[in-house]
Amino acid sequence: MMMKKILVAIVIAGCGVAAAQQPDVNAANREGETPLMHAAEWGDVATVKRLLAAGASVNMQDNDGSTALMEAAEKGRAEIVRLLLAAGANVNQQDEDGETALIQAADSRSVETVKLLLAAGANVNQQDDDGNTALMEAADNGDVEVVKLLLAAGAEVNARDDDGETALMKAREEGHMEVARMLQAAGAR
User: Fold this and answer.
1) Which of 128, 148, 155, 165 has its Cα between 20 and 30 A from that of 29?
2) What confidence score (pLDDT) does residue 120 get?
3) Alpha carbon separation from 143 to 39, 87, 139, 164, 173 (Å, rounded)
4) CATH classification for the domain delimited by 1-123, as one of 3.30.70.20, 1.25.40.20, 3.40.50.720, 3.30.1250.10
5) Dihedral pair phi/psi, residue 137, rounded to 5°
6) pLDDT band per the 50, 70, 90 thresholds, residue 61
7) Is the distance from CB of 36 to CB of 68 less than 8 angstroms?
8) What is the rounded distance in angstroms from the CA atom of residue 149 to the CA atom of residue 53?
């Protein structure tokens, strides 16, 4: 209940209307964050549904380029990711650092979220501004299940980041030998 009051306060404060008027569900705070972004981040499924029904834009970006889908993916909120995708969220939208929801989901170790994003057409080989891919994030974390999903989806095992590192190098550096063996079996050099 407290989160709902906070979200209403954010909307009302953000759009500068009296409480008796209908607030703008896409009103953003100084950071460009909307109520939908906050509800997605906090995992408030009921509020996400209400905001979507009220016409909240799923592809609005905050000042850092983040979207509600990215917020949900970063936190591993699979049910909210499903709702946002069904509402037309851009699965390949990038934030100011070039990260996508898939890169963030891989980094958060959320198997279900990664599955949803891949099924929705996420670019498995998208690189962020540092050259990192979802596979590199998963390998760096030693996440066997996410690595399997990304490999099955066609992730490029020999892609290099801006420092020349591959997913295999990242897995080895962190001591994730099972992931390293999986990557080698998939053709990593």
Assistant:
1) 128
2) 98
3) 27, 29, 6, 21, 14
4) 1.25.40.20
5) -65, -45
6) very high
7) yes
8) 32
Average pLDDT, the chain: 92
Give the class (CATH, top level) of 125-189.
mainly alpha
Domain limits, the chain: 1-123, 125-189
Q: Which residues of 67-83 are buried (b: 16+ CB within 10 A; e: fewer)?
A: bbbbbbbbbbbbebbbb
Structural contact between residues 58 and 89, judged by C-beta atoms closer than 8 angstroms: yes
Which DSSP category does 185 fall into? H
Half-sphere exposure of 141 (CA within 13 A, CB side): 20
The 10s digit of each residue's pLDDT in 76-117 is 999 999 999 999 999 999 999 999 999 999 999 999 999 999
| pLDDT recorded at residue 160 | 98
Alpha carbons within 13 angstroms on the beta-carbon side of residue 39 total 29
How far is CA 147 from each of CA 100, 102, 103, 140, rounded to the nearest angstrom?
A: 17, 12, 12, 10
Alpha-carbon Rg of the chain, whole angstroms?
A: 18
- Measured at the CA of 22, the angle between CA 21 and CA 25, to 5 degrees, comes to 140
Do 1-123 and 125-189 come out as alike in CATH topology?
yes
Q: What is the pLDDT of residue 84?
A: 98
